Amino acid sequence: MPFEITDDSGFLAIIDPDAYRGFVHTDWTRETIQEHFKQEMCEQHLLIWGTGLEHFWSVDVSLQPTKVTGFREVIGSIAASRGRLLLTNYESLTMAAQFSDVTLPQAHEREQLLSLSPGLYDCRIIQLSDPESDAPFEESVSFIYEFAHATSPRETWSDIPWRSKFHNA
């Protein structure tokens, strides 16, 4: 299942749109948004990671384990409380964080909804190429997201993986 996700900040995310609490404060700060993200990751409502640069990413989704390897990968737990997950970005998360009337998915993101059975999932995120290489986009797919049913959550991410640029976000 191919998806195209915009990224103007160097971060992509997956959320449970039926459980993720988006609004933080009209004047959120870097510290408050990071704490919000950590709390939502702890509750399996969010996975967010750095991409290495801003780009229009091609994402392939697999509901079966693959043997694909890439430049880097990370695995986290996320719940699909009503059988939906949203493939999104930092820009949408921060819009929802600042404006209480913004709900996710936003209208332009509705095609980025993934339907699957309700439940807990391990999500393996594979970035296929080094974004800092001379040819980071030789692959037609930039990321693969693998979802597999899980019986218990993995250890919560204590920080945003690959967040080299988050200090500027």
Task: Walk me through this protein's architecture.
The protein has helices at residues 30-42, 90-98; strands at 2-7, 11-15, 46-50, 55-62, 72-80, 84-89, 113-115, 119-127, 143-149. It is mostly beta strands and 169 residues long. The protein has one domain: Sandwich (Substrate Binding Domain Of DNAk, Chain A, domain 1). The strands form two sheets. A five-stranded mixed β-sheet has the order 1-4-9-8-5, with no helix packed on it. A four-stranded antiparallel β-sheet has the order 3-2-6-7. It is globular and about 40 Å long.
In CATH terms, what is the fold-level topology?
Substrate Binding Domain Of DNAk, Chain A, domain 1
Name of the top-level CATH class = Mainly Beta
Q: How far apart are the termini? A: 30 Å
The helix-and-strand class reads: mainly beta
Low-confidence stretches: 165-169
How many individual domains? Answer: 1
Mean pLDDT: 92
Strand count:
9
Please give the order of strands in the largest beta sheet.
Answer: 1-4-9-8-5
Name the helix and strand elements from N-terminus to C-terminus, one letter apiece: EEHEEEEHEEE
Specify the number of helices.
2
Overall geometry comes to globular
Q: Beta-sheet strand percentage?
A: 25-35%
Q: Kindly provide the radius of gyration, computed on alpha-carbon positions and rounded to a whole number of angstroms.
A: 15 Å
Q: What level of helicity do the residues show?
A: 10-25%
Going by CATH, what is the homologous superfamily?
Competence, DNA-entry nuclease inhibitor, ComJ
How would a textbook summarize the main sheet? Answer: 5 strands, mixed
CATH architecture: Sandwich
